[in-house]
Structure formats: structure tokens, C-alpha cells
Specification:
The structure is a homodimer. The N and C termini of chain A lie far apart (52 Å). Chain A has a single domain (49-183), classed as Tetracycline Repressor, domain 2, CATH 1.10.357.10. The mean pLDDT of chain A is 93. Helices cover 72% and strands 0% of the residues of chain A. Chain A is mainly alpha-helical. Chain A has helices spanning 5-21, 28-35, 39-42, 49-73, 78-95, 97-105, 114-137, 146-158, 160-163, 172-185. Chain A has ten helices and no strands. The interface between A and B is medium-sized, with 32 and 32 residues. Chain A binds a DNA duplex through helix 3.
Chain lengths: 189, 189
DNA sequence: TTACCAAACTAACAAGTGTTAGTTGAAAAT
DNA sequence: ATTTTCAACTAACACTTGTTAGTTTGGTAA
């Protein structure tokens, strides 16, 4: 019950392949080859291809939900909440760039868990938008279309998985700081 | 030779399906059903599934290349060049949101044309980055990491295909203006 | 030793894949 | 009136897909 390493190895390898070609284009034989085994052997560890995708995406989505809840409930300014959101994305993405690719690109291939995923995403975006709206109301944030601000921030943050692996020299803290500078100080009053 | 409408219908329908599920997950039978015909009949109009993807992606990529060339050669400030780049994305994306989805998500499934596509993308990003760097040198743009600025702008612009269809009420000019406000006035000095 | 168990294997399946060949009926061109 | 062209069709192909069943192997516990 403690060392589920083989299963996790498979899931991590799958995430890497999914990042390169997408869920649908990766076959169980591709995955098996990458693991150095035969396709049928994978089923000693996992139940189905779909279960792999579920394991990758849902755990990350829940990390975001939990992170957002903590931020929402923290007693700081709305600008500082936005900075925490930036750091949350940098943090989660740094630890699992491959998984983030699946979350971004293959969520629609979720079957049983699709509805749940969409619910989490919806709530997340609602919370995000509320921080921005409150920031505008309280004059922390420049008067501007809050949806465009969120869209701009969120798409940038969602694309971090593409960018972080190319900039290994930049550590997470520095990146979060630079990103906040570009994303937030721009809209800051 | 003038009215290639049937072929174009197939390509546009394919782009719509590719947007929803991705190139690999869309079968020729899916496409045929969406067109109201049998899979084999598609081949009276197109050569292969791969050719459809090529037709979708390469034409858009070349539009971007041409647009960027015009902008680079125009005699305006670097900030105004950035605003023109924003407008270029809004314009191309508005006219073909489905195709933009394929360009963003399925370019890696290009076969013969993959190298060519990557070359166009590389050049585009180099030009984009140069405008930002020059803008910083000439003190039009706030001193900041030019790559992060480009990354932030480009990922937002590349995600427009997700956003434009949801905001039909906003016309292209207004959207370009609002986006420039958020993306550029933030970094503007 | 014996029994057990995790984790690999081979073989096979039914269904689905992109694509080709050849055919048909209707419309357009001659 | 005849031929050609267009755009659909049926049938089939060779291959790939996710997955299951049953077997083998090597190490660990009894």
C-alpha cells in the first residue's frame, strides 16, 4: 500500500507521451514500449487507458481547487491573492509539467469524470473572476474588462507547462515574481 | 476549378470536429457522418486525412507570416507594432476559430509539412521578440524580461480561439482594443 | 521444500482504422 | 442522343486498437 511506484511510473510515462502526441494518438503499445514491457503487462497495474487519464487529470484539478480555496480564504488584498494564484500555477506546473499538458489538452477525453472536471474548472474560474472584480471595486485594479483580464492571465498560466521546461535555469520563485510583474503590475493601479 | 466548395466544406467540417476532439480522435467515418455521406466518398474530394490537416494549418500559418512581415516593415512605433500584432491575431482567429484550434493543438500531427510549419513558427516568434526587445531599448516598453512578455502575450493570443466564440457580442475591433489595453498598456511606460 | 504472489509474458479477440477499387445514377457537355 | 464528368455508393483490404485469458518466472514467506 505504500510503494505504488510501478503504477505511478506508468502514469508518469503516460503523461509524458500524452504531452507529446495527445491522449488519442498514444497507444497502449506505445506506452508499453516506453516502459520496456508488453502492452498486456500494463494491465497488471492499471485498469484501463481511461483510468490513466483520469489519474493524471483529476488529481491536478483537485490540487488547483484546494489551492484556490486557501487563497480565497486568506486575509490579504486582492492583488496579493492574484499573486498567490500566479504562484499556485507556477508551483503545480513546475512539479508536473506533463500532467498539466493532459489537463489542458485532453480533458475532453475524460469519460465518467468529465462532468466532475468541468464542475471544478467552472468553480475555479468563478473564484478567479471574483478576485478580479473585487479588486476593481476596491480600486486595487485598473478599471478594465474583468473577463479579459482573467482570460489573459489564465491562458498564460495554463500555458506554463510549455514554457517551464525550456527555462530550467529560472527557479519557481523567480518565475512567479517575473510573471506577476508582467501580468499584474500591468493592471495594477 | 473556381468553385471548390465541396472540398472546402469538408475541410471546414473537419476543422470543427478537430477542435472538439483533436485530429487523432476524429475518424474519417466521423467526418463523413458530419458531412452526411460515407467515408469512402470523402476521397472523391480529398487525398487523405493528413492532407486535410495540412490544408487547415499551413494556410493559417502563412497568413500569420505574411501579416507579421507587413507589420515588421511598417513605419510605426514598436508599441504600435504590438497593437497591430494583437489585431492580426484577433482578425485571423475571428475568421477561422476552428482552424486556429488545429493549429494550436494538432500541429505535431503534421507529417511532411511539420518542418516547414516549425520554421514559420520560429520565424514568427523571433520577429515578435525583436519588436519587444526594440521597444525596451527605445524605452517604449517597461524594462522587463522580454521573453516573459512575449510568452504572456502570445499564449493569450493563441488562446483567442477559445474565447471569441463565447463572446459573439464583442466585435473584432473592440476586442483588439480591449486586449491591447490589458496586454500592452500594462507593459507600456 | 512448498506455497504464494507480483509482474512479466504469449496469444488472441472483436471492433475500429484509413484507404482503395470498382460501380451507379444524375447532370452537363458534346 | 451520346458521352463525359461529378459525387455519391458498396464492399473490401490490411492493419491497428484496447483489452482479456491463461501462463510463466523469479523472489519471498511459510
Amino acid at each position: 500500500m505504500k510503494t505504488e511506484t510501478r503504477k505511478e511510473e506508468i502514469i508518469n510515462t503516460a503523461a509524458k507521451l500524452f504531452k507529446e502526441k495527445g491522449y488519442s494518438a498514444v497507444t497502449m503499445r506505445d506506452l508499453a514500449t516506453a516502459m520496456g514491457m508488453k502492452a498486456a503487462s500494463l494491465y497488471n497495474h492499471i485498469n484501463s487507458k481511461q483510468d490513466i487519464l483520469k489519474a493524471i487529470i483529476i488529481s491536478i484539478a483537485e490540487e488547483f481547487t484546494n489551492g484556490m480555496t486557501t487563497i480565497i480564504n486568506s486575509e490579504v488584498s486582492n492583488i496579493d491573492k492574484l499573486k498567490k494564484i500566479v504562484a499556485l500555477h507556477v508551483n503545480i506546473t513546475s512539479r508536473n509539467t506533463n500532467g498539466m499538458a493532459s489537463l489542458n489538452n485532453d480533458w475532453m477525453h475524460l469519460e465518467d469524470q468529465l462532468e466532475y472536471y468541468l464542475q471544478l474548472r467552472d468553480e475555479y474560474e468563478t473564484n478567479f473572476l471574483n478576485v478580479i472584480k473585487k479588486g476593481i471595486s476596491s480600486s486595487e485594479i485598473r478599471q478594465s474588462n474583468p473577463e479579459i483580464i482573467m482570460f489573459s492571465m489564465l491562458t498564460t498560466l495554463r500555458s506554463l507547462y510549455l514554457w517551464i521546461p525550456k527555462k530550467e535555469d529560472l527557479n519557481a520563485n523567480d518565475l512567479a515574481k517575473s510573471l506577476s510583474e508582467v501580468l499584474i503590475d500591468g493592471i495594477n493601479i
